[in-house]
Structures are given as C-alpha cells and as structure tokens.
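Appendix B, Record 12. Input sequence as logged:
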Amino acid sequence: MPGPYELYLIRHGLAEERGEAWPDDTKRPLTEDGMARMRKAARGLARLGVALDIVLTSPLVRARQTAEIVAADLDPRPSLVHAESLAPEGGFAAVVADLVKHARKTRIALVGHEPNIGELAARLIGSRHAIEFKKGAVCRIDVEALPPSGPGDLRWLLTPKILRAIKK
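Logged structural output:
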C-alpha cells in the first residue's frame, strides 16, 4: 500500500439554523454567507498548495456542499465520495474502514461535523481531548499507514478566518 498519507479533516461551513424551516436536519444547507466564506477558504487551501486525490463527505447536505466547494477550487479536482461514517452518528471504526477502502489515494479529505470531526482528529494524533473545529476549519494530519498503526502528526490546523486571509 502507498503511504505516508495526508488526511485533511474539514468541518462543514456555516449552515442554516436548526428549527421549523429545516425539520429534517439532514437537509439543512449552508447559508449564502457560509457558501461565500467556504469558497474563500477553499481558495486559501489552493494558495497553500493543498492537493487532494479524493474527498470523503458526510451525506448531509451542508457537508456535501462544503465538499463540493472545496473540490471545485483545487486543481486537479478530486473525486467526491459519500461516506455514511462521517454522518453525525458515525464512529471512528467506520471512518477508518472507509479510509482503508481508499488507501490507494494518499491525499484524502474528510468533511464532517462536530463533535465527530474534532474527536476523529484527536484519535488520529493519539490525544484524549477533542480538537475544536470552527465551522469551515481544516486540519492536516499525516499518518504512515491505513489503518493508522500509531499516532499521526498534526501538521496544521487553520481556522476559516485564517484560510480566507490567505486567499488575498
């Protein structure tokens, strides 16, 4: 199998508020402002030279929209794959199983939700304390193998504000 792997963990962007307008939380989309901010953040990733082979995304609308925005700004454009493991009820073992399915790719993004994405980041680096992800934040964790055989290295964690500033 190839390796090492660059894993990019992304929390979905700013979404519509929960409530009567969105009785089915799985269909709650990004706001117009959330989409605009994610486009700017994605340009920041592109300016940093981030390249992805594949983007695994939660099937929820707001995460899929985030994944599509990020993928659209990268060259070459990575393929998108829906991963039930990244839905709010998903678990670590299921996410790792999805990563293993795509182990031929070495630059993999995972788009999901809090608290799961922060807990996933913590587990991947061997921490017991979840990492807080603001909406639209991205971190890079490098691991030697899939499934990970030991703690990975947190290379960086960027807030959406920093990512948007990089695009200028």
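Helices lie at 32-47, 61-72, 92-101, 116-125, 160-166.
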